[in-house]
Specification:
- The protein is of the alpha/beta class and 370 residues long.
- It has three domains: 3-52; 63-142 and 251-365, Periplasmic binding protein-like II (D-Maltodextrin-Binding Protein, domain 2, 3-Layer(aba) Sandwich); 150-245, D-Maltodextrin-Binding Protein, domain 2 (3-Layer(aba) Sandwich).
- Helices cover 45% and strands 16% of the residues.
- Strands 2-1-3-11-4 form a five-stranded mixed β-sheet.
- β7, α8 (183-194) and β8 (203-206) form a beta-alpha-beta unit.
- α3 crosses α12 (267-282) and α8 (183-194) crosses α15.
- The radius of gyration is 26 Å and the shape is globular.
- The two termini are 30 Å apart.
Length: 370
């Protein structure tokens, strides 16, 4: 039985009991002095509040969650900030980490229960090694069109006609934050694969996003995979122009994971956690994205400002946090094709993802409403 139903069942019995008591008090009111009546009523109200009021934090199920302080994992922030987790009798212990790779290490050890992770080659290497963790929900998705992450080429190369498309990037220097094997590298590799090139046909330069505008100024790179605000700076500076956009429309590049230990030993808590998480995503759809309660939740966990969030293009989240298996398979295939994994055979889907928790949450909540 769901925790709220158990509490409701107990509450109904207790309410009936105290109604009887209250009537008894009312019947004997003439024999009681006014002070005693008020005291009895206050006692009744106190007990009723203890039944219907929120559980004490100490009695909530604690879930330890790793997160990187970016908007990709905003459904989690909203689920906490708007008390959807408390509704499920869950207290979330947020553990900030530097990267998804760090989060995966803690999840594999079972020292953390859940986490937000960006999919990289290291993700699949971990699955191949038998790390006990699973993708259980999608986080931010790539938009179907006009995605923020784009490939920019030097303007002089485009103007001269030397580079007209991704196919013309052969033997050129391409800047990617984090270098080979990263989520950004996936976009570049996928684009190259589709035009018959390989990652060996280009030189990947590991360059931090904030350093990319200067690299274009100095012409030290030929192209870059970059997103706002740095892509805007490069184009506004007149040194770079758009070459390719929407290389992987709809791709599920960030996800929520559960540790194997959490799945096996605290299955009921894991189910309730997902219900709250899906409610968080649904509370952010469309115009609700900038709801004041949501903004407050974002700013508690993301290093940004309200103005910056309002000005930036909203992230895309599936209202049901669906696990897109085809997207996982495509990323795994591209990373393996590029030679960025330490294995060569396909990993079975069941070793990478478990969509059942998101599916059960949708059944519990019902269909999402537009």
């Amino acid at each position: 039985m769901h925790p709220e139903m158990r509490r409701l069942s107990i509450s109904v019995e207790m309410v009936d009991h105290w109604i009887t008591v209250f009537k008894s008090i009312e019947g004997k009111e003439k024999k009681m002095n006014r002070k005693s009546s008020i005291l009895a009523i206050m006692l009744t109200l106190t007990l009723l509040f203890s039944i219907f009021g929120p559980k004490e934090a100490s009695s909530l199920d604690k879930v330890k969650v790793a997160y990187v302080a970016i908007m990709n994992f905003a459904p989690l922030y909203v689920a906490i900030g708007r008390d959807f987790m408390k509704e499920q009798d869950i207290e979330v212990d947020m553990q900030k980490v530097a990267s998804g790779t760090e989060a995966m290490a803690f999840l594999a050890q079972g020292s953390l229960d859940a986490g937000g992770v960006g999919i990289t080659a290291a993700t699949f290497n971990a699955f191949n090694k038998g790390f006990d963790l699973r993708i259980v929900a999608s986080a931010a998705l790539q938009p179907q069109k006009e995605g923020p992450t784009i490939i920019i080429v030097r303007k002089d190369l485009k103007d001269s006609g030397k580079v007209k498309s991704i196919a013309d990037l052969k033997n050129m220097k391409i800047a990617i934050a984090g270098g080979p094997g990263t989520t950004g590298a996936y976009f570049v590799a996928k684009g190259l694969k589709e035009v018959g090139l390989t990652v060996k046909d280009i030189e990947i330069v590991n360059l931090a996003n904030p350093d990319m505008p200067l690299a274009f100024e100095k012409a030290s790179v030929d192209a870059a995979l970059v997103g706002p605000p740095y892509s805007d700076q490069i184009i506004a500076g007149g040194k770079g122009v758009l070459l390719a956009q929407d290389v992987a429309p709809g791709a599920m590049t960030t996800v929520f994971m559960y540790s194997g230990k959490f799945i096996k030993e605290r299955t009921d808590v894991a189910k309730r956690f997902m219900i709250a998480l899906v409610k968080g995503s649904r509370a952010m759809q469309g115009s609700m994205y900038l709801d004041p309660a949501n903004l407050k939740a974002y700013l508690k966990y993301v290093t940004s400002t309200e103005e910056a969030i309002r000005k930036s293009k909203p992230q895309v989240y599936d209202p049901n946090l669906k696990v897109f298996i085809d997207s996982i398979k495509n990323m795994e295939e591209v990373f393996r094709w590029a030679g960025w994994t330490n294995y060569t055979t396909v990993i079975p889907q069941e070793r990478m993802a478990d969509p059942s928790f998101a599916d059960l949450a949708v059944k519990a909540l019902g269909p999402s409403k537009p």
